[in-house]
Amino acid sequence: MKVNCPNCKTIVEWNASAEFRPFCSKRCQLIDLGQWADEEHTISDNSLKQEDISKHIVSSIDNSVEAAPQKGLSPSELEDIEAMLNDLSDDSFFRN
Ligand SMILES: [Zn+2]
What we know:
- It is a single chain.
- With about 100 residues, the chain is mainly α.
- The protein contains two helices and two strands; from the N terminus they run E-E-H-H.
- The chain has one domain (about 1-70): Erythroid Transcription Factor GATA-1, subunit A (Erythroid Transcription Factor GATA-1, Chain A).
- The protein has helices at about 25-65, 75-95, and strands at about 1-5, 10-15.
- Strands 1-2 form a two-stranded antiparallel ribbon.
- Bound molecules: zinc ion.
- Zinc ion binds next to loops.
């Protein structure tokens, strides 16, 4: 019985002495296994990267919140607001 090597398509005699069947050689067997391993490696790499990206986004949000904490009003700004409220209650608000 003859089979084609899955890697290089060389015709391989399928018998007890064909140590690497269905591959023609150990090299082709290792290449094929290596492709499987690479594929799994790539998949886990991608999921790792996505996880890293999510963490990066979360930490970016955390950083931006920390970088811009709720802005407190300075005393002069409070005075301005109080004056504005006084103006409203004293004048325009009650007049209308
Ligand atoms: Zn081969």
